[in-house]
Amino acid sequence: MRRTALTAGLVAMVSLVAFEYVAVAVAMPVVAADLDGVGLYGLAFSGAMAAAVVGTVLGGRWADLRGPLAPLWTGVAAFIGGLLLAGLAPTMEVLIAGRLVQGFGGALVSVALYVVVARAYPEESHPKIFSLFATAWVVPSMVGPAIVGLVVDTLGWRWVFLLVPFLTVVSGLVLARGVAGQPVRGGQGTPAPGLLVKVAWAAVTAVAAGLMQYGSDGSPVMLVAGLVILVVALPRLLPAGTLRAARGLPAVVGLRGLAAGALFAAEVIVPLMLVQERGLSPFLAGIAITGGAVTWSFASWLQGREVFGRLTNLVLGSVALAGGILLMGAVTFDGVPVAVAYPSWILAGFGMGLIYPTLSVLTLELSAPGEEGVNSSSLQVGESVFSVVAVAVTSALFTVAGSGYWAVFAATLVMALAGLAIARRAVPSAVRAPAGQTAAPV
Question: What is the rounded CA–CA span in Å between residue 66 and residue 70?
């Protein structure tokens, strides 16, 4: 019964963090107009992202050294406080401050939850738990925009921020009941010097990613400067060898970044292409994205039941992701029926549903006791930063090519294929088969 409460609390927390991510994106145009803060619009997103990178790095090491409960409850408190500050903000500057606190708190929660899973559940349960986590992230993208639109139209944008804290308190109470008696207290990691230095590098990484984001709108100097800084800073936050996809955990982190970057950078441009180039209504263009969310959830369910082995998940998922991007890229040409857009993103979403939770499972399987937090933080930092870089670079390519949709899909296809090329490196032979089966020699 207590394990049921724990699972319910974990999934609810993931869902709330994911829902608020979607909600802010939908509500922010109204927020910026009401607070006369259109000029600070981008900072409301990039600031939260910067705070999240710092929170992820700090939370991972904190959870290893002291156990996941301290960063978890600190994160919950910061998440609630940031939401309340944003919801009551009299100016755009105060709202951005709330977003910083919210982003930091949400990151602490996210990385602490990985450590709770590692401590409280047997290894054979990890695929099912991360399947639930993946679905908890995807479902808000399906139902969130409609709910947020209704709240904004009926209650006002402030309630997009003010309602979630109440739900977070309820979820926190359920989670508190679930963790009671579970082996999640106390640290397992050994103290290591340089934590403050690592947090500082996280801040530098976040600023560099922000520079790239802003530079993609027409400032090549900012774009290049951000990329140069990232080349120096990011490797200090990731497992050694990540940028060359060394076998094991470095390849896991690299593949997560490549897959997430490929999908999200392509997905940014899909609605624009379908509406402006192929004449679809926003509603019909949105259905194409929703189809991918549905198959993402379905594939995550398959992964949770270990229908395929780890390596098959990553290879089949990477092939599906690349195939989906290739088909969607073909839709940019008038000779290809626009209806191809729908199965293309269904295929891409299916691929991500296999890849995403499998890499979460592998991260814990490849982590020694006391390293789950720092390795989980590396996984999440890599995903976030790779995604920002992918969006920034493809946005710049789109501009340089003169509304070059084909350039965006070509670049993201290369990323997906690079992920396919390193998939085998991410899965040691000992864990390639589903749980309970013996891996074949390789």
Answer: 7
